[in-house]
Amino acid sequence: MLGKITNVGEFLKSNDIKPSYQRMRIFEYLLGSKDHPTVDMIYKELIGEIPTLSKTTVYNTLNLFVEHGIVSRITIEENETRYDADTAVHGHFKCEKCEKVLDFVTDLSVLNIQDIKEFQINQQHLYFRGICSDCLKKGE
Amino acid sequence: MLGKITNVGEFLKSNDIKPSYQRMRIFEYLLGSKDHPTVDMIYKELIGEIPTLSKTTVYNTLNLFVEHGIVSRITIEENETRYDADTAVHGHFKCEKCEKVLDFVTDLSVLNIQDIKEFQINQQHLYFRGICSDCLKKGE
DNA sequence: ATGTTAATTTGTAATCGTTACAATTTTATA
DNA sequence: TATAAAATTGTAACGATTACAAATTAACAT
């Protein structure tokens, strides 16, 4: 569902965000990465091509993206905020061995939750922890 | 399912935790509270009856409880680690208005997730955000 | 073009939650 | 009662995030 974003500048504009160079590169990096990077990972990756980049800018930009709903924050562990350009509802699995965070597809509408029937739901988060299949194989 | 804990001291012992006074009071407080307190909330509540209590002790004790599997950590928002004496899998709903964290019952086994079929799942977390029914009524 | 204002970026300092660590107190044991 | 082990405590350190003001860049009117 993210494949449809061909022009990042236009995409940001259509979400009322002025497409500065930093903002475009940060969003492009999020689009291209599948590892749900932290602020630090984004900063370390981009400082190479944007030598003047400030970590504050990365924070500001990600907060802006979240406010405008084009990026979602993933809080899997305390002290480890991660970001995802895929804002559709999906699950995350964190491997306790290799520390990777993987996506998984699921449909939460089948849960039919009685207790919050009359609540207005704005966000749905699902995350699992355990050992991924790769690490299970290696561990034998 | 938590009603069965009648003797906190015995319960801690049966989980290989020496039941010191601080540990018992912290666990009792968790059992009696339904608001999934933070370390700060626990500390502020107990300092009244345990004047020598240290915040470090609250941290140490909660980490001990989590390691022994009798308390689970809930990470709903960054910078807001909460604790729950109910370790059964259940959902959490955080109201964006009144900031309360409510439990809801659900059965995740119906999700039938293909992508992680061969993974070993150790923890399952489900949390929603939005507006609770009380705040919805008030907001009209 | 040029000057002026607004928006963005940047760096530093401050804040807050959490942990490290050593000292003190309490508990268990010989 | 003496000694060792465990638990608690207080302070300092740490890391992620934010506040804030200065510097840079972009936009816009003259």
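Residues 62 and 71 of chain A are 8 Å apart (CA to CA).
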